[in-house]
Amino acid sequence: MRRLLGALLVLIALSALTAVRAQERRQRRHSSPVENQTTMTQAVNETRNDTSRINAAIRARSTHYHRDDGFTVYIDTVTGQEWVDSTQRTSLPKMKYPLLMDASVGVNIWDPVMRLFGQKHGLVGFTADVNMHNRYFPSVEVGLGAAHDTPSGYNYTYRSPMSVYFKLGADYNFLYNSNPDYKFLAGVRYGLAPFSWQVTDVTMAPGYWDDPVSFSMPSQNATVGWFEFSLGLRVKLAGNIHAGWAVRFHGLLHETKSIHGKPWYIPGFGSRGGVISGSFTISYTLPINKRQAPSVLDLDNETITGDEPVPADTVAAAAVPAVPAE
């Protein structure tokens, strides 16, 4: 009986010692993990689909670069895996083109061309705009307009001597990140025209004595304002010469009242009843900033711009980061 009791005590002691040693091994394994390929990529697998959980350990063994939109991209030097740090931006998105790229001056020859096809009003317009980031184009237009028309089948002549008109507005380029030689523009304008007009040679039907009656209305002064929306293209022809086409939709905002009626023609606007017109502009571009879109390769806050060729070894190093020596 004593021998049996002694054997049980020995077994209990051995079991307790084995359990203690196993606990110590587990503690050592948690406190001093073995660094191997599996453990080094474990965090990568755990955070593959959650970029917000990239931990400090991965960043410590990673290189990084900054994208043009302001986000930081990390590259694991062991696996080559890339992550975008979506938790914060290093800066606001960079504009691809400089603030002031160029300025353009041009002439709108729509009215002179239309006069060749029988139009009885309009003269010419001159435009100027500034290219900001290849995206925004503040513009101004100044032109001359006149009218002299005797409508077929009517017994009067409408006259409006040469007058000046003004337009102020801006265009937006939907292709702002593309080749600046091609632009797809939408714009808005406010137009204003002070001018005079009159109706002459009004002929009435013969009276009692069969004599026709003719008279003229006195000259009237008017000031008319309108809004204008445009949609068009601008392309490079050769060198600094560009051509632009646009369709314009407009409507009256305000005008001077007159007891003799309303003017039929408005300089810069066109005929009163029309809501659609066009423009065809030949322009010359004056370069202000010749710097083109940068090819940014920002590795560890070192930026290489597109003004100089990027060395091939630098590009290769960015694409496939070197594995640090163990």
Describe the structure.
This protein has 326 residues and is an alpha+beta fold. It folds into three domains: 1-32; 37-94 and 294-319, no CATH class; 100-287, Porin. 18% of the residues lie in helices and 42% in strands. The chain is built from five helices and 15 strands. Strands 4-5-6-7-8-11-12-15 form an eight-stranded antiparallel β-barrel. A three-stranded antiparallel β-sheet has the order 1-2-3. The relative contact order is 0.12.
Summarize the SSE layout with pairings.
Layout: H1 2-31, H2 37-46, H3 56-60, E1 62-66, E2 72-76, E3 82-85, E4 100-108, H4 110-116, E5 124-132, E6 136-149, E7 157-173, E8 182-200, E9 202-204, E10 213-215, E11 220-238, E12 241-255, E13 265-266, E14 270-271, E15 276-287, H5 312-319
Antiparallel strand pairs: 1-2, 2-3, 4-5, 4-15, 5-6, 6-7, 7-8, 8-11, 9-10, 11-12, 12-15, 13-14
CATH topology of the largest domain: Porin
* Percent helix: 10-25%
Strand adjacency order, main sheet: 4-5-6-7-8-11-12-15
Using DSSP, what is the number of strands? Answer: 15
CATH architecture of the largest domain: Beta Barrel
Which outline best applies? rod-shaped
Write the element-wise H/E pattern from the N-terminal end onward. Answer: HHHEEEEHEEEEEEEEEEEH
Content-based structural category: alpha+beta
